[in-house]
Design brief:
The structure holds 2 protein chains of 2 kinds.
Chain A (H helix, E strand, L loop, with lengths): L3 E4 L2 E4 L5 E7 L5 E7 L5 E9 L2 E4 L6 E3 L9 E3 L8 E8 L9 E2 L3 E5 L1
Parallel strand pairs in A: 2-11
Antiparallel strand pairs in A: 1-3, 3-8, 4-5, 4-9, 5-6, 7-8, 9-10, 9-11
Chain B lengths: L2 E3 L4 E5 L4 E3 L2 E3 L5 E7 L5 E7 L5 E3 L5 E5 L4 E6 L8 E8 L9 E2 L3 E6 L1
Parallel strand pairs in B: 2-12
Antiparallel strand pairs in B: 1-4, 3-9, 5-6, 5-10, 7-8, 8-9, 10-11, 10-12
The chains are: A mainly beta, B mainly beta.
C-alpha cells in the first residue's frame, strides 16, 4: 500500500543534541511538508519542499533543518538551537504544489526531552 | 491575515444524534477548504474537500460539510454519530494563488460521542 512512513514513533533528545526524524513516501508525490503539533494548537508549518534539492522555510523554521536529496525522502533535523522541541511532528505530502490538492499525512513522531 | 477558527474546543453528542463541528475562516479570495480527522497518536486523515460547485460536499465515513460563502463557514456534519467517530477534527484552508499548496489549520475540535 502507498503511504507515508515516519520513524521513529517516539524519540528522546538530550540537552545539546541534534536528532533527525525520518519521513519516506512511496506515493510519487512531488511536494513534502513538515508540521509541528502542540496541544490545543493547530499544525504549524516548519519546512516544505516542492521538488528534489529545493526546500523553503515555513512559519517556524528556526532551530530546524531539512534536506531533500531524493523524491521519496524528506528528513527533519531538530537542532540544539530549538529550545522547546517537545511536540508531535507530522510529515505530509501532496501530488503537486498546485493549490487544491489534499495533503496526506504520516503517523507522526513524538519527540521528548530527557 | 489568513486564519481559520474552530470556535469549540470540544463537542459532545450522543450516539445516533446528528453532529456538527464548526469552522469559519478569514482568507482572501475563494479558498479551498478541507476537513481532516486525527485519532490518538496518529496522523491526520483526509475526510473531504470543497473546491467549487455544490455547497454540500460528501466525504468519507458518512461525513459531509456545508460551505457558506456569505458566512465564510465550512461546518462538518454527520446525520447519525457513532462512538467510533470520537476523535480530533481539523479544518484547513488553502488560499488561491501563491506558488505552493499552503494550508492554514484550525486549532482542532475534540468530538466525544457517548453511547
Amino acid at each position: 500500500d502507498g503511504g507515508i512512513t515516519q520513524s521513529p514513533k517516539y524519540l528522546f533528545r538530550k540537552e545539546g543534541q541534534n536528532v533527525t526524524l525520518s519521513c519516506e513516501q512511496n506515493l510519487n508525490h512531488d511536494a513534502m511538508y513538515w508540521y509541528r503539533q502542540d496541544p490545543g494548537q493547530g499544525l504549524r508549518l516548519i519546512y516544505y519542499s516542492q521538488i528534489v534539492n529545493d526546500f523553503q522555510k515555513g512559519d517556524i523554521a528556526e532551530g530546524y533543518s531539512v534536506s531533500r536529496e531524493k523524491k521519496e525522502s524528506f528528513p527533519l533535523t531538530v537542532t540544539s538551537a530549538q529550545k522547546n522541541p517537545t511536540a508531535f511532528y507530522l510529515c505530509a505530502s501532496s501530488l503537486g504544489t498546485a493549490v487544491g490538492g489534499p495533503q496526506h499525512f504520516g503517523d507522526g513522531t513524538r519527540l521528548s526531552i530527557l | 491575515a489568513q486564519s481559520v477558527a474552530q470556535p469549540e474546543d470540544q463537542v459532545n453528542v450522543a450516539e445516533g444524534n446528528p453532529l456538527t463541528v464548526k469552522c469559519t475562516y478569514s482568507v482572501s479570495g475563494n479558498p479551498y477548504l478541507f476537513w481532516y480527522v486525527q485519532y490518538p497518536n496518529r496522523g491526520l486523515q483526509f475526510l473531504l474537500k470543497y473546491i467549487t460547485g455544490d455547497n454540500l460536499v460528501k466525504g468519507s465515513y458518512g461525513f459531509e460539510a456545508e460551505f457558506n460563502k456569505s458566512q465564510t463557514s465550512f461546518h462538518l456534519k454527520k446525520p447519525s454519530a457513532l462512538v467510533s467517530d470520537s476523535a480530533l477534527y481539523f479544518c484547513a484552508v488553502s488560499p488561491p494563488g501563491g506558488n505552493f499548496n499552503k494550508f492554514y489549520f484550525g486549532s482542532g475540535t475534540k468530538l466525544n460521542v457517548k453511547p
